[in-house]
Amino acid sequence: MKQLALINPENVSEQEANDYFVREAVRAVVLDENNHVALLYVAKEKYYKLPGGGIEAGEDKAAALRRECQEEIGSEIKVVGELGYIVEYRKFSSLKQTSYCYLTQLKSKTGSTQFTDEEKHNRFKSVWLPIPEAL
Protein backbone atom coordinates (compact mmCIF):
# COMPACT_ATOMS: atom_id res chain seq x y z
CA MET A 1 0.00 0.00 0.00
CA LYS A 2 1.29 3.45 -0.91
CA GLN A 3 1.90 6.17 1.68
CA LEU A 4 -0.41 9.09 0.88
CA ALA A 5 0.76 11.56 3.50
CA LEU A 6 2.88 12.17 6.56
CA ILE A 7 1.28 14.47 9.12
CA ASN A 8 3.88 15.73 11.57
CA PRO A 9 3.15 19.41 12.31
CA GLU A 10 5.36 19.43 15.41
CA ASN A 11 8.34 17.74 13.68
CA VAL A 12 8.44 14.79 16.06
CA SER A 13 11.68 12.83 15.58
CA GLU A 14 11.75 9.05 15.13
CA GLN A 15 13.71 8.81 18.39
CA GLU A 16 11.04 10.81 20.26
CA ALA A 17 8.30 8.70 18.65
CA ASN A 18 9.85 5.52 20.09
CA ASP A 19 8.08 6.34 23.36
CA TYR A 20 4.74 7.09 21.69
CA PHE A 21 1.62 4.94 21.73
CA VAL A 22 1.32 3.27 18.30
CA ARG A 23 -2.20 2.95 16.90
CA GLU A 24 -3.32 1.38 13.65
CA ALA A 25 -6.64 2.47 12.20
CA VAL A 26 -8.76 2.07 9.08
CA ARG A 27 -10.72 4.69 7.13
CA ALA A 28 -13.35 4.15 4.45
CA VAL A 29 -14.46 6.14 1.45
CA VAL A 30 -17.94 4.62 1.15
CA LEU A 31 -19.93 5.24 -2.03
CA ASP A 32 -23.64 4.46 -2.38
CA GLU A 33 -25.60 3.69 -5.55
CA ASN A 34 -25.97 7.45 -6.24
CA ASN A 35 -22.22 8.09 -5.81
CA HIS A 36 -22.81 9.85 -2.51
CA VAL A 37 -20.02 9.61 0.06
CA ALA A 38 -20.56 8.64 3.69
CA LEU A 39 -19.05 11.10 6.16
CA LEU A 40 -19.25 11.67 9.87
CA TYR A 41 -20.16 15.18 10.96
CA VAL A 42 -18.66 16.06 14.33
CA ALA A 43 -21.14 18.75 15.36
CA LYS A 44 -19.36 19.81 18.55
CA GLU A 45 -16.23 20.80 16.59
CA LYS A 46 -17.97 21.49 13.24
CA TYR A 47 -15.92 19.27 10.93
CA TYR A 48 -16.37 16.17 8.77
CA LYS A 49 -14.31 12.97 8.78
CA LEU A 50 -14.28 9.60 7.09
CA PRO A 51 -15.82 6.66 8.91
CA GLY A 52 -13.33 4.33 10.53
CA GLY A 53 -11.34 3.74 13.67
CA GLY A 54 -8.87 1.61 15.52
CA ILE A 55 -8.08 -1.98 14.64
CA GLU A 56 -8.86 -4.22 17.61
CA ALA A 57 -6.65 -7.09 18.79
CA GLY A 58 -7.06 -10.15 16.57
CA GLU A 59 -8.89 -8.18 13.88
CA ASP A 60 -7.66 -7.76 10.31
CA LYS A 61 -8.03 -4.46 8.46
CA ALA A 62 -11.05 -5.55 6.38
CA ALA A 63 -12.91 -6.80 9.46
CA ALA A 64 -12.13 -3.58 11.34
CA LEU A 65 -13.40 -1.55 8.39
CA ARG A 66 -16.66 -3.50 8.21
CA ARG A 67 -17.18 -3.20 12.00
CA GLU A 68 -16.46 0.53 12.06
CA CYS A 69 -18.81 1.23 9.13
CA GLN A 70 -21.57 -0.75 10.83
CA GLU A 71 -21.04 1.15 14.09
CA GLU A 72 -20.56 4.66 12.68
CA ILE A 73 -22.72 4.86 9.55
CA GLY A 74 -25.09 1.94 10.16
CA SER A 75 -24.06 0.25 6.92
CA GLU A 76 -22.67 -2.96 5.51
CA ILE A 77 -19.89 -2.36 3.01
CA LYS A 78 -17.84 -4.19 0.40
CA VAL A 79 -14.13 -3.36 0.15
CA VAL A 80 -13.33 -2.47 -3.47
CA GLY A 81 -9.68 -1.48 -3.20
CA GLU A 82 -6.82 0.14 -1.32
CA LEU A 83 -6.27 3.89 -1.50
CA GLY A 84 -3.13 4.17 0.64
CA TYR A 85 -2.09 4.98 4.18
CA ILE A 86 -1.39 8.10 6.23
CA VAL A 87 1.10 8.32 9.10
CA GLU A 88 0.53 11.02 11.70
CA TYR A 89 2.38 12.07 14.82
CA ARG A 90 0.61 13.92 17.63
CA LYS A 91 2.92 15.27 20.32
CA PHE A 92 0.10 16.41 22.65
CA SER A 93 -1.16 12.82 22.95
CA SER A 94 2.18 11.02 22.41
CA LEU A 95 0.63 9.17 19.46
CA LYS A 96 1.90 7.70 16.22
CA GLN A 97 -1.07 6.59 14.14
CA THR A 98 -1.15 4.84 10.80
CA SER A 99 -4.52 5.03 9.04
CA TYR A 100 -5.11 2.58 6.18
CA CYS A 101 -7.61 3.98 3.68
CA TYR A 102 -9.90 1.92 1.45
CA LEU A 103 -12.45 2.51 -1.29
CA THR A 104 -15.69 0.70 -0.49
CA GLN A 105 -19.22 0.29 -1.83
CA LEU A 106 -22.39 0.33 0.19
CA LYS A 107 -24.07 -3.09 0.38
CA SER A 108 -26.97 -2.12 2.65
CA LYS A 109 -28.00 0.48 5.20
CA THR A 110 -29.25 -0.80 8.54
CA GLY A 111 -29.64 2.76 9.77
CA SER A 112 -28.61 1.72 13.27
CA THR A 113 -25.42 3.39 14.51
CA GLN A 114 -23.57 2.46 17.68
CA PHE A 115 -21.55 5.51 18.66
CA THR A 116 -19.22 5.41 21.65
CA ASP A 117 -19.88 7.70 24.61
CA GLU A 118 -17.14 10.04 23.35
CA GLU A 119 -18.67 10.12 19.86
CA LYS A 120 -22.08 10.88 21.37
CA HIS A 121 -20.55 13.64 23.49
CA ASN A 122 -19.01 15.14 20.32
CA ARG A 123 -22.42 14.77 18.59
CA PHE A 124 -21.35 12.54 15.70
CA LYS A 125 -23.87 12.19 12.89
CA SER A 126 -23.56 10.13 9.71
CA VAL A 127 -24.37 11.98 6.48
CA TRP A 128 -24.31 11.08 2.78
CA LEU A 129 -23.13 13.85 0.45
CA PRO A 130 -22.58 14.16 -3.31
CA ILE A 131 -18.87 13.85 -4.12
CA PRO A 132 -18.38 17.55 -5.09
CA GLU A 133 -19.96 18.66 -1.80
CA ALA A 134 -17.95 16.12 0.20
CA LEU A 135 -14.69 17.48 -1.20
TrEMBL record:
Designated name of the protein: Nudix hydrolase domain-containing protein
Cofactor(s) required, per the database record: Mg(2+)
Alphabetized GO MF terms: hydrolase activity
PROSITE patterns found in the cross-reference section: NUDIX
Bilayer-crossing regions: none
InterPro entries named among the record's database cross-references: NUDIX_hydrolase-like_dom_sf, NUDIX_hydrolase_dom
Organism: Candidatus Amesbacteria bacterium RIFOXYB1_FULL_47_9
Nudix hydrolase domain segment(s): 21-135
Record keywords, A-Z: Hydrolase
